[in-house]
Amino acid sequence: MNHFEIIETRVAQVRAALAIQELDAFIVPHDDEHLGEYIPAYAERLDWITGFNGSAGLAIIMAQRAALFIDGRYTVQARMQAPAELFEFLHLNEDPHVQWLAEQLPSGSRVGFDARLHSLAWYQHAKALLTERGIELVRVDENPIDLHWSDRPAPTKTPVILYSEELAGQSSQAKRELLATDLRKRGLDAVLLTQAEPINWLP
Question: 70 falls in which pLDDT band (50, 70, 90)?
Answer without folding.
Answer: very high
